[in-house]
Amino acid sequence: MTDELKTRLYHKLKAYHQENLLQYWDELDQTQRQLLADDIDSLDLQYVTQSFEKVMQTGQSHSQKKDDHILPLPEDVYCTLPNVDSHRQDWQTLGLNLIADNKVAVILLAGGQGTRLGVDYPKGMYCVGLPSGKSLYQIQGERMFRLQQLAQERTGKKGTIPWYIMTSQHTKQQTRNYFEKHKFFGLNEKDIMFFEQSTLPCFDFDGKIILAAPDKIARAPNGNGGLYSALSNCGILKDMQDRGIAHIQAYCVDNILIKMVDPVFTGYCASKNADCGAKVVRKVDASESVGLVCLCDGTYQVIEYSEISKEMTEKRNKNGELMFNAANICNHYFSYDFLSQTVSARENELPHHMARKKIPYVNESGQTVKPETPNGIKMEKFVFDVFLFSKNFAVMEVKREDEFSPLKNKCGTGRDCPETAKAALGKLHGRYILEAGGKFVTKDGKEISDTSRYSILTLAR
């Protein structure tokens, strides 16, 4: 049986030039051989090898600039807060009514571990040093709770917002345990659903699938764009359909200022009958390394800064503003119909992107080695790549200081780190107090007239 199994696997792998996966077969015991056989059989070899070939071709052409293919976003799909405050109340009212009518859901993209933060647990569990000790998950959960309360206060109807949390293989159980430990932050457990994104095998630069151990293929999550296949495979779309969900917002876990299920944004997109939408902020300056939402070959896309020349990056319009200025912050809107159609008919059209990574591998002695430099390719899909399928797109520009402060780097790096996230949240709350008529005073009662360079955490001392 073992020889027959090896022969079958060999011929299967040879058709795609992946016989290297059997190089330690003779050294494995029966249990290990079965584990490896199951791992190999779980692969769609045609799909993954063709995907690798495409991502390598894309990577080789990535250096070609897209200057001749891109245009700024047209005015009819774009609005800027607070320039449209005359409509803001109407959009908010519509959004709150949709929440009260159980028509709105939110998707959290939470597959990332806190490796760059220097921790070995999911990023959402991280606390940036707030006096309350609250984590990103707790901040977001409490915002959800309050938003449901607000919708009920405004409409008299009690609605719920289902919270669909996409994890990776490595973060799913820790995330679930964390929510259980904190009693789901006051939310109904039945309205919080955890689901797992898929993985893809890792390849070396020669196109060979990497072994993480003699009996195990090296795999990695398929990027936040893995959301779309997971929605179907994990029954999330079916649950949305059963609940009558019509409007969905999706966001990444690491933005401490995130306005998830923002009723203004939901109402704006719903009022335009948008199938897909994005929140953006203005670039800090022309040189900021950030993805830009724009038109590319007639479709809406996010273009990486490296795909545009310096001249195009610095180009300005008649008002003296950067022509390409809409920085993506991964806060997106989808209609249910758009998501359902995309998943069922067009998910396979979404491109894979190349990520050169340090991937643990098995050396000639059968030992697992952690390389010090990138040695292979992980293939990822991006959540915003579905924009190109949109027929009725909507973009809302918001203030960076109100809605965007990502947490990506460890303490002390000075940018997109715990210190900057903590300061951004403190300053936001300070502005809330001032806008509500509050004041900050010194210990002797003297009013502080200029609070712009302080955060509430500093002023409260």
Quick rundown:
It catalyses: N-acetyl-alpha-D-glucosamine 1-phosphate + UTP + H(+) = UDP-N-acetyl-alpha-D-glucosamine + diphosphate. With 461 residues, the chain is an alpha/beta fold. The chain has helices at residues 2-14, 30-41, 45-61, 85-100, 136-155, 172-181, 227-233, 236-243, 263-271, 310-313, 336-346, 400-403, 418-435, 456-459, and strands at 70-71, 78-80, 104-109, 163-167, 192-196, 199-201, 203-204, 211-213, 216-217, 219-221, 247-252, 276-282, 292-296, 299-303, 326-335, 353-357, 361-362, 368-369, 376-380, 393-397.
Helix content: 25-40%
Contiguous low-pLDDT stretches (5 residues minimum) are: none
**What's the CATH class label of the largest domain?**
Alpha Beta
The secondary-structure class comes to: alpha/beta
Q: Walk across the major sheet and give the strand order.
A: 2-20-12-15-11-3-4-5
Task: Determine the number of helices (DSSP H or I, runs of at least 4 residues).
Answer: 14
Per DSSP E runs of 2 or more residues, the count of β-strands stands at: 20
Residue share in β-strands: 15-25%
Largest sheet, if any?
Answer: 8 strands, mixed
Number of domains: 3
- What is the approximate shape? globular
Distance between the termini: 73 Å
The whole-number mean of residue pLDDT values reads 92
The CATH architecture classification of the largest domain is Alpha-Beta Complex
CATH-wise, what's the superfamily of the largest domain? Spore Coat Polysaccharide Biosynthesis Protein SpsA, Chain A
What is the fold-level CATH name, i.e. the topology of the largest domain?
A: Spore Coat Polysaccharide Biosynthesis Protein SpsA, Chain A
